Amino acid sequence: GAVVSQHPSWVICKSGTSVKIECRSLDFQATTMFWYRQFPKQSLMLMATSNEGSKATYEQGVEKDKFLINHASLTLSTLTVTSAHPEDSSFYICSSGDTYEQYFGPGTRLTVT
Amino acid sequence: GENVEQHPSTLSVQEGDSAVIKCTYSDSASNYFPWYKQELGKRPQLIIDIRSNVGEKKDQRIAVTLNKTAKHFSLHITETQPEDSAVYFCAASKSNMLTFGGGTRLMVKP
Description:
The structure holds two protein chains of two kinds.
Chain A: E1 4-7, E2 10-13, E3 19-25, E4 32-38, E5 45-51, E6 57-58, E7 67-73, E8 76-81, E9 90-98, E10 101-104, E11 108-112
Parallel strand pairs in A: 2-11
Antiparallel strand pairs in A: 1-3, 3-8, 4-5, 4-9, 5-6, 7-8, 9-10, 9-11
Chain B: E1 4-7, E2 10-14, E3 19-25, E4 32-38, E5 45-51, E6 56-59, E7 62-67, E8 72-77, E9 86-94, E10 97-100, E11 104-109
Parallel strand pairs in B: 2-11
Antiparallel strand pairs in B: 1-3, 3-8, 4-5, 4-9, 6-7, 7-8, 9-10, 9-11
């Protein structure tokens, strides 16, 4: 199947700093990338949908100025958590695919101290 | 938007017994229903899926049923093994967008 890579796999940052997470489709063109957040013992919640060459669509309650998404090419989408706070600590996962299959990145564990 | 409810949230079974997890969805336009197994700190792993034009699908010990009229779908695992212990998520998809259920923590006791 298709492969989505994600970097970094884990990151620890200080409160108030920004962190960038990269998601790459390695063997297919990802016109759309979905970004999810998963808190401990909870489900995956869709944060935003990024489309190559256009603005991302954010789910209700997700601050677009805090979670900056860029999808400048068909193989790369990035999520930047700006001015991170401890409550942003979570597992962030991206996915892309087609109607009948989504390929997930391995996830990024973000810890904000 | 779509809303997916999943029950039970935890399920403990004896090795060899069957496990059933149920989900309901709200949007009749959803047309694809995957089930994922997720181990701690890992990405969700697709274990079985069903499309809206099919009522049942089986793959060895795992089966999924779909009732479009009632907007219900269920995962059935037979002859459970300790390695089946994990968190399972159902999802409903429309236009590539997945909405996940709340998850079920399955524990298989040896």
